[in-house]
Amino acid sequence: MKEFERIYLSSPHMSDEGYEQEYVKEAFDTNWVAPLGKNVDGFEQELADYVGIDHAAALSSGTSAIHLALKAVGVTEGDIVFCQSLTFSATANPIIYVGATPVFIDSDRRTWNMDPQALKKAFEKYTPKAVLVVHLYGQSADLDEIKALCDEHNVALIEDAAESLGTLYKGKHTGTIGDYGIFSFNGNKIITTSGGGMLVSNNEEKIKKTRFWATQSRDQARHYQHSEIGYNYRMSNIVAGIGRGQLKVLDDRVEKKRQIFSLYKEHLGELDGVIFPNENEFEYSNHWLSPMLVTKHVTPIEIMEALEKENIESRPIWKPMHLQPVFSSYDYIGGNVSEELFNQGICLPSDTKMSVEQQMRVINIIKEVFGEKDL
Known about the structure:
The protein is an alpha/beta fold. It has helices at about 20-30, 40-50, 60-75, 90-95, 115-125, 145-150, 205-215, 235-245, 250-270, 300-310, 335-345, 355-370; strands at about 55-60, 80-85, 100-105, 130-135, 155-160, 170, 170-175, 180-185, 195-200, 275, 285, 290-295, 315, 330-335, 345-350. About 40% of the residues lie in helices and about 15% in strands. α1 runs antiparallel to α8, α9 packs parallel to α12 (about 355-370) and α10 crosses α12. It is globular.
């Protein structure tokens, strides 16, 4: 039996041109391997320029960026934060870090993201300090309605754009429409620094404050003095160098992800019981991952097991936060859309190093799973 090379869900992909190595080499050549430096400053400015926002703070992770966004908003112990339920736990965990209470919001079936109608009901029941919306798998939330509700109630909007760098909402980059946006450069993201994140905002004062908190809140004094609790959240100059190189190929990565999604939809979209998410009229998605729903004949787990036998990685859709044991005591507003997406969903291999031939192998295996059911 032929042993096939493993096909990954979404693995790191360095540029063929070696841009990343050039920036990292410069850091080594100048002996500047500290948590600050030319690459950090450059990455912040270049990322801000790319997405069209005024200010950015390079941090150690997307999670730390959410944490400091909540602090910048002024969320403290006892406050309520509305949070999209269908997401990874890294979105919700920082709410607990600051001692606040999450209230989870269901998804809109059109976007798979926060349902504006459920959000409206939540505002009728609670007075939150912030709203945390997610752009899941690169698909944009319907931000106009969500932002209008936040503005009406004078509540800050934080966009978790960890998965949607390069996605546009009505011509503007996701992460730049709310009061704060966060990006992630984890190893599986559309561009990676191996680990790292970015907090962006047009509020210069708050971004400066973020950098202060992220460097242990060291006061300007000759001696070590601290008037506030700080964090070790700053990005390293080495990591930022990787990010600067990756940013040069971001447009190529978005185009490749979109091609991957299109090929899946072309070959699998007509199978009875298979549904792909829509690319709505207001968005241009980066399609970071290619998810699909399987509503009958076969189950997502049957497909995942068939792929795994052939050395191919796939994953379930995120399990909603309101179904997680750690968050089970918190309120949830909405219906069962996020739960249905979880139960019926699968994320297909979306690796930008995957060849068309490899992707067709994935497609044919899935077709075989359906064929075994004698439809």
